[in-house]
Design a protein that fits this description.
By secondary structure, the chain is mainly alpha-helical. It contains five helices and no strands. Helix 3 runs parallel beside helix 5. The longest helix has 24 residues.
Length: 130
């Protein structure tokens, strides 16, 4: 961890260091399937990618708005997947065939995400999926 921390602290510059990254350690990496229960946004991304079309636009827009809401303190970190899931639930799957359709879908998804954030801030009961 020392080398990544050094890089982070001195970014964008680099200072001379005797530290080296042992590339040979990479021979022993093991990969496991991701835990989509622990990482619900990953599950939502897989679903949107599988559905394609408007779902991918909605996912991106909802994620941007939800993360912004978290960063400005409007919602908690655990609310991010709730916002995204709500937007995806409210977005009917369909193909997008023009830039204007993409921009319209993006705008609608952003508005849905903003509305969900407002409800979460108020502590309003939610009768729809997370």
């Amino acid at each position: 961890m020392r080398l990544p921390i050094l890089y982070a602290l001195t970014y964008p510059e680099r200072i001379e260091s005797d530290m080296r990254f042992p590339v040979m350690d990479l021979r022993h990496l093991e990969f496991q399937p991701p835990d989509v229960e622990k990482f619900p946004c990953l599950r939502l991304a897989y679903g949107a990618a599988e559905a394609g079309g408007v779902q991918t636009v909605a996912l991106n827009a909802a994620d941007e708005i939800a993360v912004a809401g978290f960063l400005d303190g409007s919602i908690g970190f655990d609310d991010i997947p709730k916002v995204i899931e709500h937007v995806l639930f409210e977005t009917q799957s369909r193909k997008l065939e023009s830039i204007s359709q993409i921009l319209e879908a993006d705008s609608r998804a952003r508005q849905l995400a903003q509305d969900k954030i407002v409800k979460l801030k108020r502590g309003a009961p939610d009768l729809r999926p997370a």
